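As the next step, I selected for study one protein, both as residues and as discrete backbone shape codes, as given directly below:
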Amino acid sequence: MLHLKKSNTNELVYGGYMKEYFMNYAISLAKKGIGFVNPGPLRGAVLVKDNKIIGEGNLPSYLGQQPELLAMDSINEVLSDSELYTVIEPSEEAVIEIIKRKVKIVYIGIPDLGIYKKEASIKALEAAGIKVITGILKEECTELNEIYSHYITKGTPFVFTKWAMTLDGKIASKTGDSKWISGDESLKFVHELRQRVAAIMVGENTVRVDNPMLTTRLEDVKISNPVRIILSKYGSVPDTSKILEVTEDTKTIFIVSENISKEREEFLIKKNVELIKLKEFEGRLSFQDIIKALGDRNLDSLYIEGGSEVLASAFESKVVNKVYAAIAPKIIGGRSAITAVAGVGIERMKDAIILKRVTHEIVGVDVIFKGYIE
């Protein structure tokens, strides 16, 4: 691990890895925009001169001022000896000012994958004689903006799932009790995921059993609630469900069948719930249609929280991009106890879904695994 310390001259010393330090600081600034910049990228920028930070900025909201401009605006001087570190390729507006202020070097974590951009900002900077170096903390910058990069290239939400299960693979006991499998630290992790995404999905059975609010609950931070997506062909949830309490900060969309009854449709509309009506195929709604419909509404990310049948359908439809699984040190047993992913299931191990780039971390007493489906 690299250790940060201050020298007698108050210059930051970081074990010789100054570039990584400054980019890491830019990443920390970009994270301040989590939950508020969707469907745009998380942006952070640091202006450096003589190995000292002289300006900084982050994108606070989707239409907020660009961080590179914020970093430069605080400095009333020519910046010909300065370096700019930015998490993702700067916007055209920022490039104009960077060239005007004669920044010496621009370090970029990752290019902007926008289909019409094609590294246009990088090329413009180089054409103006500014040195551009890309790939500083590339993996970290890529993961930070994986939602944006997926959405801007595919037009559909980046989809991830998360569940908590016991050591023997159960997400609830044989009676359906699931409160609480994971520890307090893991529950906080869940709410950090909710803060990150544009939308969160559960099925109607989860609404009936748990009556969740599906809101973000974190302390000491500004909260962003994801849009609540309820998968329910005929809107069959209890009339007192908390997800029907719609306010300016808590919106709900029901994914329903075209065959929903007129009475139920009118009831949901009176509750200020938005409906997305889709065709049924052999008694089911297509996850591919669901993902497309959400993407068309500028929802760049979807967190599928449950239940097991919804998760099974998502995996079978091959729409899942990333998986989180929290394993708690508990054993409950039971043949009828619920597992995380239900459905028909595979017949042979060779057909199992295999996660790539798998990592894990210990959160409290739980172990959270993370991996990608590629």
Observations:
- The chain has two domains: 5-148, 155-372.
- Confidence is low (pLDDT under 50) at residues 1-16.
- The first strand starts at residue 5 and ends at 6.
- The two ends are 30 Å apart (CA to CA).
